[in-house]
Every structure is written in C-alpha cells, then in structure tokens.
C-alpha cells in the first residue's frame, strides 16, 4: 500500500511550547524531540507531528480542522484532560456510533476525544 496522499504529519500552533509539551506528555504520554527553541516534534500520538511556536505562525483558530483522538475510557480521558488544565469546550455527547467531548489545549487549539458506544 502506498503512502501517497495519506496524512503523514500534523502540526499544531503553540503559544507556549513548554506548556504544550507538559500537557500532552502528562495527559497522553507523548514524547518529544526539540528542534530549536520554537519547535518540538511529538511521538506516540498514532501519527507523527509537531508543535510550532514560531512567532510568524498563524495562531489557533476555532475555524481550523478538528483533530480527534480515540479513547477506550472516555470518562478517564476527560478527567485526565481536566486535571492537565485544559478547558472542556463541549461536554460529552452521543452521536450515532459513539460519544465524544472537545477540549482547548494550553495554546488554544480545540481537539476532541471519542469512543465507541
């Protein structure tokens, strides 16, 4: 199977790189490789990606794409996200086939976590 036209890497804007690494490392167990003072690649997320804190980078917006993580225990994930200091932007709700919630990370990016019913 070819990797041609497959999602290969995701970058999230970061207003505070240290806070992003702390949040995603503590809550989800991700690890990081620093590439200078304004960029850190993340690993262990199911897809490789990075946090970009470059001053010229467009900052988070509620009009951007939504990244959705999977959880085998949605309530535990919600508690971990809250304990990590994130704001819950959409409480747990059901949709056909699952449940999910949305949260705002330390740099203002909105992500979601879902699970099957």
Keywords:
about 120 residues; 2 helices; 8 strands; four-stranded mixed β-sheet; 2,3-Dihydroxybiphenyl 1,2-Dioxygenase, domain 1; alpha/beta; globular
Quick overview of this protein structure:
The chain has 117 residues and is α/β, with parallel strands linked by helices. It has helices at 17-28, 74-83; strands at residues 10-13, 31-34, 39-43, 49-52, 67-70, 87-95, 98-104, 110-116.
Give the count of structural domains: 1
User: In total, how many beta strands?
Assistant: 8
- Any idea what the shape is? globular
In DSSP terms (H or I, runs of 4 or more residues), the helix count works out at 2
- Rg calc: 14 Å
Strand order of the largest sheet: 1-4-3-2
String of helices and strands: EHEEEEHEEE
For CATH, the homologous superfamily is named as 2,3-Dihydroxybiphenyl 1,2-Dioxygenase, domain 1
CATH class: Alpha Beta
Helix fraction bin: 10-25%
What oligomeric state do these chains adopt? Answer: single chain
Structural class: alpha/beta
Please specify the SSE layout and strand pairing.
Elements: E1 10-13, H1 17-28, E2 31-34, E3 39-43, E4 49-52, E5 67-70, H2 74-83, E6 87-95, E7 98-104, E8 110-116
Parallel strand pairs: 1-4, 5-8
Antiparallel strand pairs: 2-3, 3-4, 6-7, 7-8
């Amino acid at each position: 199977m070819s990797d041609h036209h497959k999602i290969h890497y995701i970058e999230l804007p970061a207003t505070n790189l240290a806070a992003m690494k702390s949040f995603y490392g503590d809550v989800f167990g991700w690890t990081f490789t620093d590439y200078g003072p304004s960029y850190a690649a993340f690993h262990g997320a199911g897809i490789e990606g990075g946090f970009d804190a470059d001053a010229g980078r467009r900052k988070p917006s509620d009009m951007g794409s939504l990244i959705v993580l999977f959880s085998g225990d949605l309530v535990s994930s919600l508690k971990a996200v809250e304990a990590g200091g994130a704001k819950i932007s959409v409480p747990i709700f059901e949709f056909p086939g699952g449940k999910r919630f949305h949260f705002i990370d330390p740099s203002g990016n909105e992500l979601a976590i879902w699970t099957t019913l």
